[in-house]
Amino acid sequence: MRKSIRLILFLLFIFLNFESFSQFVKIENYPFISYEDNKIEFFGSSEKRFDPLFDKIKQTIALGTDQVRVLHIGDKQILDDVFTAQIYHNLSLTLHGLESRRGMLWNEATTLRPKKEMEYVIADYKKEEDLLCKKFRLYHSPLNDSISIYINDRESSYKTIYFEDKGYTLFEITNPISKVSLNIINTSSENFIIYGHYLESRNAGFIYDIISENSINSDQAVFNESLQPMLKTMSFDMVVISIGEAEAYSPSYLSESFKYNLKELLKRLRLNNPNVPILLTTPYDYYVNNKPNQRLELVTEDLIEVAKTSNCAVWNFYKIMGSKGSSETWSRNGLMDNRKTSLTNRGSILQGELYYNALWQSFENYIGKTN
Questions:
Q1: Nearest one of 226, 294, 300 to 259, comparing CA atoms
Q2: Which residues contact 358 (CB under 8 A, 6 or more apart)?
Q3: pTM metric for this prediction
Q4: Tens-digit pLDDT profile for residues 123-162
Q5: Which of 51, 79, 81, 205 could lock onto 60 through a cystine, CB 3.0 to 4.6 A?
Q6: CA 64 to chain centre
Q7: C-alpha–C-alpha distance, residues 181 and 117, integer Å
Q8: Which CATH number among 3.40.30.10, 3.10.580.10, 1.10.10.10, 3.40.50.1110 corresponds to the domain 2-99+206-370?
Q9: What are the φ and ψ backbone dihedral angles of 6, each rounded to 5 degrees?
């Protein structure tokens, strides 16, 4: 039934020329926001790289035969999953019958000390039908007989497979449970490290994976030796990168170093999938020492330069929000905090809605081009 609904809606979307079947999110009209700049800019061969993604989205919407998986890597802009949540929530709200969920939430690694135990929550669903999947991976340091990992729910039936060469344990749950949490016991004399988890789901059309750290910079993103091998075991249809906030905060910002590290990160992300579409988003405007941060303009320019030479697309949120000093206006309207250093929840939600509309506009442009 859901597939029929999706197909009918998609056919309406195609034949009505997008006019009476718009899937854009309605956004409050703020005079200080540059709505005309709210678009994804394609550089080099990036637009062609996005075509397979948009075609897969089309198939997913129309028939539910495919699944689109996006990886978003970033700093504090995405750490609390407010900005990013608007993306997958809006997909579900505007496309009735299409499931869109967060898949992986990967923050800083968790260290379990010797002779300790801990609870590690994978997912907590209020409704049984919201259960994302019955299968997930837990990435961790090598297992030994002194490490025990099991699902807390005593009534759950499941099996596990440890893939030592890939660095994770696969859990397959037979019966659905509302809260998926693990109990991890370390009886060894060494630390045990949990890097993160990755949900495997086939009942959601869109899965949005998030890897974030509060003050991650390009150097840390490139040379995270534990993360790189793990990314090789995952598959993504699109990668979004939101970094630059931490570099711009430092008075000793090194432009060439930032661009070099970002290019290296892009190379590593493309090792397994050379043609994966990559979107770079610019940091938002914020104050440092009660003054507009002038380095944000340079970081934005450097991101665009890298995009041009590395065949990436760019969503220029810095320009959309009003560029240098615009956080003053955002703060007066409750979209940034009083110190003008961080977006409020309202501001992050607006950021997510703007991003979603820009992405959807690019998708509509693709549909118009191919029909």
A1: 300
A2: 38, 39, 40, 315
A3: 0.85
A4: 766 544 444 567 889 999 999 999 999 998 877 889 999 9
A5: 205
A6: 21
A7: 13
A8: 3.40.50.1110
A9: -60, -45
φ/ψ of 175, rounded to 5, equals: -110, 135
- Least Cα distance to 300 among 342, 243, 354 occurs for 243
Distance of CA 57 to the CA centre of its chain: 16
Residue type, position 286, single letter = Y
The closest alpha carbon to 277, from 47, 28, 31, 26, belongs to 47
Closest C-alpha among 206, 124, 237, 122 to residue 168: 122
- 270: nearest Cα among 228, 208, 225: 228
Helix, strand, or coil (residue 184)? strand
Longest CA–CA span in the chain (Å) reads 66
Determine the Cα–Cα distance for residues 227 and 225; give it in Å rounded to an integer: 6
Closest among 370, 366, 359, 369 to 23, alpha carbons compared: 359
**For the chain, domain boundaries:** 2-99+206-370, 110-196
Residue with tokens 């905090």, as numbered in its chain? 337
Backbone angles phi, psi at 61, to 5 degrees: -65, -45
Contact 351, 83 (CB under 8 A): yes
Using DSSP's 3-state secondary structure scheme, residue 320 falls into helix
The number of residues making up the chain comes to 371
Q: Which residue has the tokens 């249809």?
A: 237
Across 213-322, where does the E strand assignment appear? 238-242, 278-281, 287-288, 291-292, 313-315
AA letter at 371 = N
Give 31-85 pLDDT, tens digit per residue: 999 999 999 999 999 999 999 999 888 887 777 667 788 888 887 767 777 888 8
C-alpha 265/C-alpha 120 separation (Å) is 29
